[in-house]
Predict the 3D structure of the following.
Amino acid sequence: MGFWENKKVLVTGGAGFLGSEVVKYLQNEGAQNVLVPRSRSCNLSILENCAEAVKDTDIVIHLAAKVGGIGLNQEKPGELFYDNLMMGTQLMEQARLAGVEKFVGIGTVCCYPKFTPVPFREEALWDGYPEETNAAYGLAKKMLLVQSQAYRAQYGFNSIFLLPVNLYGPRDNFDPRSSHVIPALIKKIFDALQNNDEKITVWGTGRATREFLYVEDAARGICLAAEKYNRSEPVNLGSGFEISIKDLVYLIVKLTGFDGKIEWDVTKPDGQPRRCLNVSKAKEAFGFTAETDFEEGLKKTIESYRSALNQKSYLAI
């Protein structure tokens, strides 16, 4: 019998971009009782909803979050701080009170200090303040780690904390008001292609670097950790691959066939100067390594968006 077969698993955010891949992975591994609360009817910033959600549950995988790119972080830092803090804090407390077997908390690379030495090692997590544009979100998520370690120390509660880098893949959030860099760029370029625009404008200088993890790899890493990892120390989830925003833009331009001009708006922030994780602990602790080649993952993401556009155009006829 597999690990997941008799487990009742709560996946918050399970209908979302990452969550749907986690649910699919769990079902493929034999999980027959996966619960996915929907935000419309189960707002996890309300205590009573958290208490109801965790009833009779064996494992909680907490993926639900209010999240976005630099623009949303600058526009709504208060909402991002409060909603993410309350969801995580209340859900973990109610899971403890309900006798949940294990709690899997998902943090973010935004938890790291602004000038963390590259590659980011988990031991550097407390060596400075996060990058200012996403500090409110990063610190709210970082409190899950504090709570996790405190609850293990006082109550023996089995909770773990994972730090994924920026994710990408099909079914990502392409809304320009809240999307991250890859879906935002893909949408911007397809809009330009549809409108026959001769240029696109990209935020920042292009010098900042980022690491990206394909969503299916991230789902597999989270589930492996849920199954095999039982310690207090945080663990990075990433690909170990770093690319500049400038190189990323030109790669997406090549893959989409856009031949217009790239204009850089240097009045807009770059965000954190560099992001690249040391991913050795995940491999050692629960056997996770990323498998998806970055360019292949981008191609799948672009084709998925292209297909969605074509379908939308067909339905509009």
